[in-house]
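Please, structure for the following, as tokens.
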Amino acid sequence: MDLLEYQAKELFSKVGIPILPSQPIADPRQIKKLQIPYPVVLKSQVRAGGRGKAGGIRFVENTIDAIAAAQYIFNLPILGQYPNVILAEARYNAKEEFFLAIVLDYQLKRPVLLGSAKGGVEIEPLLENIQKVVVEADFSPFYARRLVTKMGLRGKLIQSVSAIVEKMYRLFVEKDLDIIEINPLGVGVDGEVMALDGKITINSNALVRHPDLYSLQRANNNFTNDSQSLSALPSPQWLDYQDESGNIAIVCNSLGLALVTWDLIVRDGGKPRGSLVIDRATKSELLPHYYIARSLNTALEKLSEVSGIKAVLINILGNEEITGSATNAIVDYLQLLQQKAAVKQLAIEEGSLDGSDLGSEPEPLQWIIRIVGGKKDFPEATFTEMPVRWIDDLEEAVSQTISLAKIE
């Protein structure tokens, strides 16, 4: 079970991890009774990542601007999730930002401490500077100091950041967590440290031992203000016809578009394996645009379970809201793949993963993405190290897909 930021920070405060003055807001009108002096930051409380880039974090200087920003955030879907609560929090000027995390490594069957001297939203420098310490015996402050020293911290920061790691570990054990993360841990001009954001994943099987966490589980069951429940909407479906000898997967947001794409690939000599349709609405009605993001993410996860696929052609047609939601969902999914690959490579380089055992792993999928009908703002430069191509013309997208699928 993933906690929202404000819920994670409630647990932080119970073990003495410093957090800023904050106040959950369930309605924009509550801004008028804000107990925090301006300037403040308003944060969308959803489990999806990329809140800042999606517009879900706003800095405001006064009540009028805060009310307008709160109304905007409440009506902003981030990967299909609408917040029921936003977090109003005091501003903090950090001169440095670190990344800290503790994860339960199921392969090692041990907790692992992670830290980077380059925290924040930029993933590449964070991963380039990541350090790891495996807790191989009963925990002691030695493990925390070892991590902080490997991160390259010096002076008073060794003690202050080590103390944060110790408190994180206490919470990790007491609440049966799978993951606890602070990113970033800000350092002020006076050397004060502050948890500026937090993520916690609780082992769902352990909830029976923590009745105080049941209320958090109930609070997280709904992420949309729309009257139509996402759980009631159809899941992505494969077209009835599939060819197990094919090596191309198709993802479209309508049945007609899927059939046209399939026919073009077959016409030009390609072999589709199957096609996932993410918007099979009934009565010819379009589903809400925020559903597209959730359904698209589910479809991409389904593709990872199918062997023999070499290339994936994603063909999305819609208005600006639909194409924007689809673009964000694809970018987030590909960035996650990129991060996983970087972490695996780091583990190989550090010797904690034997690279010789990975020889039988399949080649990475080739991604050909066509999104038409809305604003074109594709972050092509973000994926220069990945086999990803954004193509507007359908004929060219089909041709590229077939060509890439034939590469041995």
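The first helix runs from residue 5 to 14. The chain has three domains: 21-90, 96-219, 230-405.
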